[in-house]
Amino acid sequence: MAVPKNKTSHARKSSRRSTVWKINAPELTACPNCGELTAAHKACTNCGMYNGRQVVVKKDEQ
């Protein structure tokens, strides 16, 4: 059974985990219908349009 011979130092452990925070923010694009910034390949949260079609019906529009 494999057992570490020496304790892993705090600096060595932290340097191994240091790349976790380098995640990029998602790219935002303008909705062609209303101009609201939205994530790519997702329905617009403001108007509910996706790919030129109404896919989400808002409650206030009913």
Short description:
By secondary structure, the chain is an alpha+beta fold.
The quaternary organization reads as: single chain
Give the tally of β-strands: 4
Overall geometry = rod-shaped
β-sheet strand percentage: 15-25%
List segments where confidence is low: pLDDT < 50 over at least 5 consecutive residues.
none
The largest pleated sheet is described as:
2 strands, antiparallel
Tell me the radius of gyration. 23 Å
* pLDDT averaged residue by residue: 87
Q: Which structural class matches the secondary elements?
A: alpha+beta
Give the arrangement of secondary structure elements.
Layout: H1 10-16, E1 28-30, E2 37-39, E3 49-50, E4 53-54
Antiparallel strand pairs: 1-2, 3-4
Word description of this protein:
The protein has 62 residues and is of the alpha+beta class. It has a domain at 27-62. The protein contains 1 helix and 4 strands; from the N terminus they run αββββ. The chain has a two-stranded antiparallel ribbon. A hairpin with a 2-residue loop joins strand 3 (49-50) and strand 4 (53-54). The protein is rod-shaped and about 65 Å long.
